[in-house]
Specification:
single chain; alpha/beta; FAD/NAD(P)-binding domain; D-Amino Acid Oxidase, Chain A, domain 2; 2 domains; 10 helices; globular; binds flavin-adenine dinucleotide; FAD/NAD-bd_sf; FAD dependent oxidoreductase; FAD-dep_OxRdtase
Length: about 375
C-alpha cells in the first residue's frame, strides 16, 4: 500500500511527486501512467516557460482583475525561479534566453507597451522593442513591436519530466492506465488492467484526460488539440529565444543546430481542434508553413522534418482548476492548464503536494474550483 498515488506522468504529476518527496521523504509514493512518462502534452510541447495566464499582463488584468492577474504573474514567476534554483537546469537544457512576446495587431502592440510600467512596478523586468528592433534581432521580416521578458526561457520538457520522476523516488508504473477509483477503508483502490493498487490518498494529474476517469469534471476541462512542426536543421540560428506572437496563437523557437520548432494556428481552425483525435491536419500545417515563410523568408527551402499534435486540457476561464476528488477525503485533481502548463507546472506541483499534506497552500484560492464564480461552459476558449 502506498501513502499517496499520483495518476498521470506529465509535468504536473511528476512535479507533485518531486515536492512530496522533498517535503516528506518518508512517504511511499506510487506514480501510475497510462503510457510512457511525458506521453501526453508534457512531452509534445514547445518548452516555453512564460509568465502569467497569457504572457500578456493587461489581457490577464481584463480577464481576471488586476489583483488576481498580479498574483498569477507572481505564481508563474516563482515557477521559473524554482525551476532554476531547486533543480539542476542542465538536466533539462534550460535556456536562460528571455522570451519575446510579439504583437499581431496594433491594439496588442499598444497593450504590450503599456504593460511595461505595470510589470516593472511589480519587479518584473520587461523591455518594449519596436518592430524594427524585433525584426533586426530575429533576422525576420514583418513582425510588429512587442515585449522582451528577460525572465522567460525554454527547456526540454521530456527531460524535465523524466528528471522530476527520477528525483521523486516514487515507484513509477508506466503503461498502467487507471480505469477506476473505489473508496476502500481509509483510502482508495485504483484499478488497472494488471490488478489494483491501494493508497491512502490520490492526486489525479490527467489534464485533458481527467473527464474520462471522472466524467463529472467535463464541465471544467475539455480536450483541445495543438499542432507543431519541426524543420530540418538550418545550420544557422536566427532566433535566439522563444517567440510567442499574435496573442500566443503562434509560437516559435530554434534549437542550437538551427532546427525551427513552430506551433499554433489553432485560432484559424477552432472547431476542428477540439477533441481527443491525435493527428495533424493538412490545412493547419499549411498555415504554420505560411507563417514561417512570411516572417522568415530564408526558411523557404527548408524541409519539414516532423509534424505532431498533442492534447491540451482547457478550462472555461483559462486558468488551471484544482478540486477534491468527490467521495475521497484528502484526494485532489488538477487540470485545465489551457496551453500553459509548463509555465505553472513545477510551482503547481509544490502547491498540490502541500494540499495533499493537509495544508492550505499559498495560491490555492487562485485555482480552487470552489473559489471560482460563474463557470459557464460556453466560455470555453
Ligand atoms: C503542441 C503543444 C505545445 C505546447 N506548448 C507549451 C509551451 O511551450 N509552454 C507551456 O507552458 N505549455 C505548453 N503546452 C501545454 C502544456 O504542454 C500542458 O499544459 C502541460 O503539459 C500539462 O501537463 P499535465 O501534466 O497536466 O498533463 P499531461 O502532460 O497531458 O499529462 C497527463 C498524463 O496522464 C496520462 N493519463 C491519461 N489517462 C490516464 C489514466 N487513466 N491513467 C494513468 N495515466 C493517464 C497521459 O498519458 C499523460 O501522460 C503545449 C501543449 C501542446 C500539446
Amino acid at each position: 500500500m502506498a501513502d499517496i498515488a499520483i495518476v498521470g506522468g506529465g509535468v504536473v504529476g511528476c512535479a507533485t511527486a518531486f515536492w512530496l518527496h522533498r517535503l516528506r521523504p518518508q512517504l511511499r509514493l506510487i506514480l501510475l501512467e497510462a503510457g510512457a512518462l511525458a506521453d501526453g502534452a508534457s512531452g509534445r510541447n514547445a518548452g516555453f516557460i512564460l509568465p502569467g495566464a497569457s504572457a500578456d499582463f493587461l489581457k490577464d488584468c481584463s480577464r481576471y482583475g488586476e489583483t488576481r492577474a498580479r498574483r498569477l504573474w507572481q505564481f508563474t514567476r516563482e515557477n521559473r525561479t524554482l525551476l532554476v534554483r531547486e533543480l539542476d537546469p542542465t538536466a533539462f537544457d534550460w535556456e536562460d534566453s528571455g522570451a519575446l512576446i510579439v504583437a499581431g495587431s496594433a491594439e496588442e502592440e499598444k497593450r504590450l507597451q503599456e504593460a511595461v510600467s505595470w510589470l516593472r512596478s511589480d519587479g518584473a523586468p520587461a523591455i518594449f522593442l519596436s518592430a524594427a528592433e524585433i525584426n533586426r534581432r530575429l533576422r525576420a521580416r514583418g513582425y510588429r513591436g512587442g515585449l522582451y521578458l528577460p525572465e522567460g526561457g525554454c527547456l526540454d520538457p521530456v527531460a524535465l519530466v523524466r528528471y522530476l520522476a527520477d528525483r521523486s523516488e516514487a515507484l513509477v508504473l508506466t503503461h498502467h492506465p487507471v480505469l477506476a477509483l473505489e473508496p476502500c477503508g481509509d483510502g482508495v483502490r485504483l484499478e488497472t488492467p494488471y490488478g489494483s493498487v491501494r493508497a491512502g490518498q490520490v492526486l489525479l494529474a490527467l489534464n485533458a484526460y481527467l473527464p474520462r476517469l471522472l466524467p463529472e469534471t467535463a464541465a471544467y476541462v475539455r480536450p483541445v488539440r495543438a499542432q507543431m512542426l519541426a524543420t530540418e536543421p538550418a545550420g544557422r540560428r536566427w532566433v535566439p529565444c522563444p517567440v510567442y506572437s499574435h496573442d500566443g496563437f503562434f509560437y516559435l523557437r530554434q534549437l542550437a543546430d538551427g532546427t525551427l520548432l513552430l506551433g499554433g494556428a489553432r485560432h484559424l481552425h477552432l472547431e476542428e481542434e477540439v477533441g481527443y483525435e491525435d493527428a495533424t491536419t493538412e490545412a493547419l500545417q499549411a498555415d504554420l508553413e505560411r507563417y514561417l515563410h512570411a516572417y522568415f523568408p530564408q526558411t523557404e527551402g527548408l524541409r519539414i522534418q516532423c509534424r505532431w499534435s498533442g492534447t491540451m486540457g482547457f478550462s472555461p476561464d483559462g486558468l488551471p482548476v484544482v478540486d477534491q476528488v468527490p467521495g475521497l477525503e484528502g484526494s485532489y485533481w488538477a487540470a485545465g492548464f489551457t496551453g500553459h502548463g509548463m509555465g505553472y507546472g513545477f510551482r503547481m506541483g509544490r502547491l498540490l503536494a502541500e494540499l495533499l499534506l493537509g495544508y492550505t497552500p499559498d495560491g490555492y484560492d487562485l485555482f480552487a474550483r470552489s473559489h471560482r464564480s460563474a463557470f459557464a461552459l460556453e466560455r470555453f476558449g
